[in-house]
Design goal:
about 160 residues; alpha+beta; Aminopeptidase; 5 helices; 8 strands; about 35% strand
Length: about 160
Protein backbone atom coordinates (compact mmCIF):
# COMPACT_ATOMS: atom_id res chain seq x y z
CA UNK A 1 0.00 0.00 0.00
CA UNK A 2 1.10 3.56 -0.70
CA UNK A 3 -0.28 6.82 0.66
CA UNK A 4 0.58 10.03 -1.19
CA UNK A 5 1.03 13.51 0.20
CA UNK A 6 2.19 16.57 -1.72
CA UNK A 7 5.90 16.33 -0.81
CA UNK A 8 6.12 12.74 0.39
CA UNK A 9 4.75 9.30 -0.19
CA UNK A 10 4.43 6.64 2.46
CA UNK A 11 5.20 3.01 1.81
CA UNK A 12 5.01 0.02 4.06
CA UNK A 13 8.20 -0.95 5.88
CA UNK A 14 10.19 -3.81 4.35
CA UNK A 15 12.77 -6.09 5.88
CA UNK A 16 15.55 -4.29 4.00
CA UNK A 17 14.58 -1.06 5.82
CA UNK A 18 15.33 -2.47 9.27
CA UNK A 19 18.97 -1.37 9.55
CA UNK A 20 18.19 2.15 8.33
CA UNK A 21 15.32 2.47 10.83
CA UNK A 22 17.50 1.04 13.61
CA UNK A 23 20.19 3.66 12.90
CA UNK A 24 17.61 6.45 13.01
CA UNK A 25 16.07 5.02 16.16
CA UNK A 26 19.46 4.84 17.93
CA UNK A 27 20.39 8.43 17.05
CA UNK A 28 20.26 10.48 20.29
CA UNK A 29 18.93 13.51 18.39
CA UNK A 30 16.02 11.40 17.11
CA UNK A 31 15.22 9.35 20.20
CA UNK A 32 15.57 12.05 22.85
CA UNK A 33 11.78 12.46 22.86
CA UNK A 34 10.93 8.73 22.75
CA UNK A 35 9.64 6.88 25.79
CA UNK A 36 12.14 4.10 25.18
CA UNK A 37 15.60 5.51 24.53
CA UNK A 38 17.49 2.26 24.99
CA UNK A 39 19.92 1.11 22.31
CA UNK A 40 18.30 -1.19 19.74
CA UNK A 41 20.42 -4.14 18.61
CA UNK A 42 19.95 -5.85 15.25
CA UNK A 43 18.39 -8.80 17.06
CA UNK A 44 15.93 -6.58 18.94
CA UNK A 45 15.05 -4.84 15.68
CA UNK A 46 14.30 -8.17 13.96
CA UNK A 47 12.17 -9.27 16.94
CA UNK A 48 10.27 -5.97 16.80
CA UNK A 49 9.65 -6.43 13.06
CA UNK A 50 8.25 -9.94 13.56
CA UNK A 51 5.89 -8.68 16.28
CA UNK A 52 4.84 -5.81 14.00
CA UNK A 53 3.96 -8.22 11.19
CA UNK A 54 1.93 -10.40 13.56
CA UNK A 55 0.14 -7.62 15.44
CA UNK A 56 -2.66 -6.82 13.02
CA UNK A 57 -3.26 -3.46 14.76
CA UNK A 58 0.06 -1.67 14.21
CA UNK A 59 0.89 -0.18 10.81
CA UNK A 60 4.38 1.15 10.08
CA UNK A 61 5.33 3.22 7.02
CA UNK A 62 8.52 4.71 5.67
CA UNK A 63 8.25 8.38 4.70
CA UNK A 64 9.91 8.99 1.31
CA UNK A 65 10.70 12.24 -0.48
CA UNK A 66 8.55 12.37 -3.62
CA UNK A 67 11.32 14.04 -5.64
CA UNK A 68 13.95 11.34 -5.33
CA UNK A 69 12.28 8.50 -3.40
CA UNK A 70 14.80 8.78 -0.56
CA UNK A 71 13.56 7.43 2.79
CA UNK A 72 13.62 10.21 5.38
CA UNK A 73 11.63 8.98 8.36
CA UNK A 74 8.80 6.87 9.70
CA UNK A 75 5.17 7.22 10.56
CA UNK A 76 3.15 4.59 12.29
CA UNK A 77 -0.23 4.13 13.83
CA UNK A 78 -1.96 1.66 16.07
CA UNK A 79 -5.66 0.94 15.99
CA UNK A 80 -7.01 1.28 19.54
CA UNK A 81 -9.97 -0.70 20.87
CA UNK A 82 -12.10 -3.38 19.33
CA UNK A 83 -14.44 -0.95 17.58
CA UNK A 84 -11.56 0.43 15.46
CA UNK A 85 -12.78 4.01 15.80
CA UNK A 86 -9.53 5.44 17.17
CA UNK A 87 -5.87 5.32 16.19
CA UNK A 88 -2.72 6.74 17.75
CA UNK A 89 0.00 8.08 15.44
CA UNK A 90 3.74 8.39 15.96
CA UNK A 91 6.19 10.06 13.60
CA UNK A 92 9.83 11.02 13.32
CA UNK A 93 12.15 12.32 10.64
CA UNK A 94 15.38 10.32 10.79
CA UNK A 95 17.42 12.11 8.13
CA UNK A 96 18.85 15.26 9.69
CA UNK A 97 18.86 17.26 6.44
CA UNK A 98 15.13 16.55 5.95
CA UNK A 99 13.95 18.16 9.19
CA UNK A 100 12.09 21.46 9.12
CA UNK A 101 11.10 21.22 5.44
CA UNK A 102 7.45 20.29 5.84
CA UNK A 103 7.85 16.57 5.20
CA UNK A 104 6.49 15.62 8.63
CA UNK A 105 3.46 17.90 8.27
CA UNK A 106 2.74 16.50 4.84
CA UNK A 107 3.05 12.90 6.05
CA UNK A 108 0.75 13.59 9.02
CA UNK A 109 -1.88 15.28 6.85
CA UNK A 110 -1.79 12.32 4.44
CA UNK A 111 -2.22 9.76 7.22
CA UNK A 112 -4.91 11.73 9.05
CA UNK A 113 -6.82 12.10 5.78
CA UNK A 114 -6.42 8.41 5.05
CA UNK A 115 -7.55 7.31 8.51
CA UNK A 116 -10.50 9.66 8.87
CA UNK A 117 -11.83 9.10 5.36
CA UNK A 118 -12.52 5.38 5.83
CA UNK A 119 -15.92 5.98 7.42
CA UNK A 120 -15.27 4.01 10.62
CA UNK A 121 -12.37 5.90 12.17
CA UNK A 122 -13.53 8.86 14.25
CA UNK A 123 -10.48 9.97 16.23
CA UNK A 124 -6.74 10.22 15.70
CA UNK A 125 -4.59 10.70 18.78
CA UNK A 126 -1.01 11.66 19.54
CA UNK A 127 0.97 11.65 22.77
CA UNK A 128 3.89 14.03 23.24
CA UNK A 129 6.30 14.60 26.07
CA UNK A 130 5.62 17.91 27.81
CA UNK A 131 9.30 18.75 27.27
CA UNK A 132 8.91 18.41 23.50
CA UNK A 133 7.55 21.89 22.73
CA UNK A 134 8.36 21.54 19.05
CA UNK A 135 6.09 18.48 18.75
CA UNK A 136 3.30 20.10 20.76
CA UNK A 137 3.31 23.13 18.45
CA UNK A 138 3.55 20.86 15.39
CA UNK A 139 0.44 18.91 16.46
CA UNK A 140 -1.48 22.11 17.25
CA UNK A 141 -0.69 23.49 13.77
CA UNK A 142 -2.14 20.28 12.31
CA UNK A 143 -5.39 20.82 14.22
CA UNK A 144 -4.91 18.54 17.21
CA UNK A 145 -6.56 19.68 20.44
CA UNK A 146 -5.15 18.88 23.85
CA UNK A 147 -7.52 16.60 25.74
CA UNK A 148 -5.51 15.91 28.89
CA UNK A 149 -2.09 15.62 30.43
CA UNK A 150 -0.59 13.02 32.69
CA UNK A 151 2.13 10.45 32.96
CA UNK A 152 3.15 7.68 30.63
CA UNK A 153 6.16 5.44 31.27
CA UNK A 154 7.20 7.80 34.08
CA UNK A 155 7.28 10.87 31.81
CA UNK A 156 4.98 13.92 31.82
CA UNK A 157 2.93 13.90 28.61
CA UNK A 158 0.12 15.65 26.83
CA UNK A 159 -2.60 13.73 25.03
CA UNK A 160 -4.05 15.34 21.92
CA UNK A 161 -6.61 14.34 19.32
CA UNK A 162 -8.29 15.34 16.12
CA UNK A 163 -11.79 14.15 15.21
CA UNK A 164 -13.57 13.53 11.97
CA UNK A 165 -15.91 16.42 11.22
Amino acid sequence: MRIDGEKVYLREIREEDLEMVRCWRNDPEVNKFFFNRSYITQEKQREWFQKLIQSGTKIFFIICDKVDGRPIGTIQWEILGNDKRCAEIGIYIGEKDAGGKGYGSDAMRAVIGYLLSDGEMETVRVTALESNQRALEFYKRLGFMEISSGEKHGERVRFMEIRRQ
